Amino acid sequence: MGMKKFINDPKDLTKELLEGLALSNPSRLTLAENKLVVSTNLGDKKRVHIVSLGGTGHEPAISGFVGPGLLDISVPGDIFAAPGPPVCIEALKMANEASQGAGVLFVVLNHAGDMMTANMTMEMAEDMGLNVKKIVTQEDISNAPRDNWDDRRGLVGCVPLSKIAAAAALDGKSLDEVYDVAMKFNKDMATLAVALRGATHPQTGDVISVLGEDEMEIGMGQHGEGGGGRSKVKTADETTEIMTNALIKDLSIKSGEKLMLIINGSGATTGMEMLICFRKAYKVLEAHGNEVVASWVDEILTVQETAGFQLFIAKMDEELLNYWNAPCDTPYLRVTK
Amino acid sequence: MGMKKFINDPKDLTKELLEGLALSNPSRLTLAENKLVVSTNLGDKKRVHIVSLGGTGHEPAISGFVGPGLLDISVPGDIFAAPGPPVCIEALKMANEASQGAGVLFVVLNHAGDMMTANMTMEMAEDMGLNVKKIVTQEDISNAPRDNWDDRRGLVGCVPLSKIAAAAALDGKSLDEVYDVAMKFNKDMATLAVALRGATHPQTGDVISVLGEDEMEIGMGQHGEGGGGRSKVKTADETTEIMTNALIKDLSIKSGEKLMLIINGSGATTGMEMLICFRKAYKVLEAHGNEVVASWVDEILTVQETAGFQLFIAKMDEELLNYWNAPCDTPYLRVTK
Lengths: 337, 337
Known about the structure:
- Two copies of one chain form a homodimer.
- Chain A is α/β, with parallel strands linked by helices and 337 residues long.
- In chain A, 31% of the residues lie in helices and 23% in strands.
- Chain A contains eight helices and 14 strands.
- In chain A, the strands form three sheets. Chain A has a six-stranded mixed β-sheet, sandwiched between helices.
- At the A-B interface, helix 1, strand 7, helix 6, helix 7 and strand 11 of A face helix 1, strand 7, helix 6, helix 7 and strand 11 of B.
């Protein structure tokens, strides 16, 4: 289909979208030097600060979740590209100083570029004596089995994980404690994606993935990486049931467990479809004996105009639920008191 | 392109999407008989209640804005179709009773079907002695001049108008006063839409509008009604500047006036594009001597997988801004304290 989008010079995409984000949310975040997106809450008190990094082109993630009660700093790369270590170190230094000694949790999605940047950054941070712990999100069940965790990609789970970590930080937990809370959530979360139509790279016009007019693909990654689940298009209920059951199996969910359920639209999916699929996933989980105690249906982490969604499930206990329900005020996630 | 969506039986779309909305937002709304979507805040105290109606297929609008601090009841029709007067009367009766004598503001978008239903409903409400005032939103500048106001279609403006009216109601204003506040906003708001790609009707598969691969259309209505502004695709900045200037002219905006600025994505528009266009509109208004005091960039009222956006501007004074900033907690708009 080629590239038919409201853009200007493709090389300015990231700069311009971040300007728009800052101008539309002056009470929540500011755009600092080197495109760092910084919460207005930065340095409000001695507490752990939360930093994340990632390419743009996935709006609203991740910079749209900077603000009081969630990310303190995001480090955006260019479209689908990790930022370099120097700007990440700058963010970690700023957050570490703002934390007044409490330290920094560095949330990284498991993608090759992000990981290379994060690992180099962590080495530099150690040399500089910064108090930083890294946590890697890797919950895509499509491309590796659970016992090969390190090969799993990070999908939408980075956002609720960061939210929970941020609430724990505001609650006065130490860096080790914040890390432990986040890891508890991390270990018991899983995502599976499905796509009906792929997207184009907004700078190059390259087609990220191609699906036939009657095809869908379960397991498509964030940049069109195949998951091997290509089939004829199924109904919403059939598709959602297959995906929910796959997540139940991967997480070994038992009857009686309380869950978070998220439908993350991939970009061009209608709200109508997302709600219909949420309904089915909810019913499958209910029939399995589970209670959905936390929900979110929206475009959270997108891939341009991809049609499809990510189905996310995580196990919840009282502590995680309290942190999920703690107030936050960001451009694209707000929890009221 | 035909219809390639995650749905089940097309006749169940509305029922299923409303189920999903209710299941994902149990603290905010419930799904009552006859598909009425009802705020958990209904009848909380003696105050004006706010009711609106409209077809589904435009998610999250309008039912996604039911909840404490915004709509008390929405009356959904089927896809792109107005509900019938009987169910609207049921909603008005329920809201009137819950208002404990304070009365009901009935927010109606100016579209033929919605208006026919609303007018018949108002006649019945009068016969029954219900305390209801109707307000019609009609802010699309593309299809009629300002002095022919009654021919203008209602677009995204119904949502901020309902938000402001609801806050005035919670503030204890009388029905006449709530109406006056809403009318002040209504008279000085305007929207212009642009589309790059049309959509399909999710029940029939009918193509709602067709645009050539190199075409865009300024002024496209909510159901593909043409606005006469078809041209070759322009850049984001060129398009936004044309649209912002048209709104400035229509509203006779003077330097120094404070404004609300909204970019409403039409369905398949990327967050990246919306933010880039917001940025340009903001800069055009800034250069014109105006201050943007209220912002919103999101998918609010969509038309399935349409690619494009609505640019909305309204004049703001201190009262309107206070009501806009008052807390609310709905599925797709939340204002924190």
